[in-house]
Amino acid sequence: MTNQTTQIPQITSFKDIQNRLIAVDTEYQVLQNAPALSRIERETTIHKVWCASFSHNEKAFSIWTGNDDSMPDILDRAAKHFDVLNPIFVNYAYFAEWEAFSRLGVDMFAYDWVDVHLLYRILSNSYTDKVETTLVSMCKDILGVSIDSAHKDAMRELCISGNVEGNEAQIMDYCEEDTRHLIPALFNLEDRLNRRLALDVTMPVNCRHRGDRSTPVASLIMELMESLKAFTTISHRGIPVNGDRLRAVRKGARIVRDKQIREFVEKYPGTWDFVTPSTKSLDKVVSEEERLDALKDTPFEAIMEDFKKLIESKSIRTQAILCGQYAEWYECNVKGCGGSWKRNDKECRRFLLADLKSRGLLDSFPLTDTGKLSLSKDALKDTFGKQTGTFGGDFRVLMNKITCYNGILADGKSDWLAAYDENDGLMRYRTLNPFSTVTWRCAPSPSNGWIFGWDKSLYCVIEPPEGKWIVELDFSSEETFIQAQVFDDQAYRDLYASKDIYLYTGVLTGMIPREDFDSMSKDDLKTKYKKQRDLLKTFTLAIGYGAGNKTLAGKTGLPLSEVEKFRKNYDKAFSRTMFVRDELKRRMESGRLKCLWLANGLCATLNRHKVKTSYNAPLNYPIQGTGSAILAKVARDFEREGIRTIATIHDAVVFEVDEGDMKTIYKARDLMKNAADYILNVQDGEGGMKVGEPEIIKHGEIWTPEHAFDDQASELLTAGGY
Fold first, then answer.
1. Which of 99, 571, 584, 668 has the smallest set of CB atoms within 10 Å of its CB?
2. Chain segment 75-84, per-residue pLDDT in tens
3. 270 Cβ partners below 8 Å, 6+ apart?
4. Residue 374: HSE in the Cβ half-sphere, 13 Å Cα cutoff
């Protein structure tokens, strides 16, 4: 093999090592009502660890930590108390224990862990059926044990409120009680997972671990735990942010948002209405002395006259112009009595209806429960993709931006910037939410400060500190190579080895002349066939997710007849992959395929009667699941090698290095390639998946989507006075 896996405990069965298992739980305080803290800090940051309880072979041991904020040897003390060598600590929800013990100074990577919550998630992992995974529900489901929820809530409230004096004993008793369920649950879950993995399921796919019963469940779990430890550590580092840019973006978001709405209204009249303030509200306008410097030469009376015109005007265009002219002043001084834009759903649906009819997409477009055309982001994305120039595509783009800008402008629970720490300049998004999807991908929340989930123009707020670089590395055309390997498709291997996968797809489907592809340089081809390449990229990605011809027509704007012709040629060119996908679909339809095996050795269950409404997502699971397994290995390998990762994004890793440290960057590239080769069973001499050139962001530079200072980022920063 091209590389060796990281040092992960190889365990045949957890029952075989029962004497090494120590169950652990903590109780702590979260400052939910502290106004000085950000929302993210109030809701998730552990302020005070009150106690830690441990159990081993039906014996319990607790340590009251409330008077000591530093106890780095606490886990060693527990192991010594039970006389356990090389302990494996068993917990429920590793994220919480990481927070608690890290606050006490414990190096969490120095110990082996098993998260029972993760095992329960694995057992309940299903494409169609969602299962509650709290400790209470797990104990009821797995052990038949009913936990007194009222008592649990009462004890939890004591800890969170800090009302612990005089209640220490009952808090520790409560904490110990939770630990007593963990190891029995671990054994039960291991047995159930072994039975699940013993299902006689054969899939025509090729990848490490998939359907491999030779690797014990316990070893697979320990491998996943190393990745969980890595993802948790990464998410707590935070993303370095330029505070001045952040404040400018926040200030400029409303101005840019309203400008984009006005431009949209000019193109599609009536889709938004500008709701003006009442005449009485003008009394609330501040005095001339408080106006912005930008308007210092404008008589106050003139401004008032303009606002009266705005209020009295029946013309949306006049309202839009006047609002834009005085947008910054109006926002700063009129405040809550100001005007706002309100979407006119009736007019939006009228434009959308015409757009769908013109392209024959009306029959396949999603409807609301009341039978109206859906205006949801998912419906728009599925039909129109990234295309623009028609109402559906333009509306999708605008709605995405409005959602993002509204989040930046919001206060309270929806404040996307609440995770920013002024003290150290970090956006602490707190969790990558690892293994939270059916294919075990990370799914961090933009509303928790996850910048990489925002509009890409907002990457401009990211900046490494002095003396540091931020580096992004990603896999080159990851899904193409995974598809080639997993479906054993030589046509996809040839595609991946070509000078450009999208242009070569054009050759195979008759869209681009082969003689041009063979004789011209890649850059010349991309210039000459830019339009075709953009179409081919949309086609390729959408087909990978199971898009039908009507959906492809919507995403590309091409007539259905042209799409059908392209799809026929595409299916012929990649006949092996199409055969495998069709076979998977037939097995799902018949009910023979009860599980979808993933590259981490585990699987997702399928409900035949529920899955038949849509096969698109499950058909792509072998690809997505393999990609997530690769990234999980990359995360744990980076941590083992001391590479300071700050984010993982689909097929990319973002990390921080000392300025000029190319050695670490090259090392990171090697680790990524080796991880992919390992998961994909690439043998020596076979080549493998490529890793792209590093994108390096230096202190003082501005990082934007295409790694250049684009118009959108510039507009935001300029509008905000940066």
1. 571
2. 999 999 999 9
3. 316, 344, 347
4. 16
Residue with tokens 């919480």, as numbered in its chain:
96
Over residues 343-347, the mean pLDDT reads 92
Any residues with CB less than 8 A from the CB of 126 and at least 6 apart, and which? 438, 604, 605, 606, 607
d(CA 293, CA 18): 72
pLDDT tens column, 417-451: 767 888 888 988 878 888 888 888 898 888 778 88
For Cα atoms 75, 76, 80, give the angle at the middle one, nearest 5 degrees. Answer: 120
Window from 231-240, 314-323, 578-587, 632-641 with minimum mean pLDDT: 314-323
Give me 642's structure tokens. 């001391």
Q: What is the largest CA-CA distance in the chain?
A: 85
φ, ψ for residue 597, nearest 5 deg = -75, 140
Nearest Cα to 678, choosing from 621, 629, 628?
629
Pull the structure tokens for residue 332.
């700063």
In the structure encoding, which two tokens stand for residue 671, read together?
Answer: 């680790």
Contact 119, 190 (CB under 8 A): yes
- Angle at which helix 549-556 crosses helix 530-544, to 10 degrees, equals 140
| Domains defined for the chain, CATH in brackets | 15-198 (3.30.420.10), 216-240+431-476+581-722 (3.30.70.370), 244-412 (no CATH)
DSSP assignment of 269-283: TTSEEEEPPPGGGGG
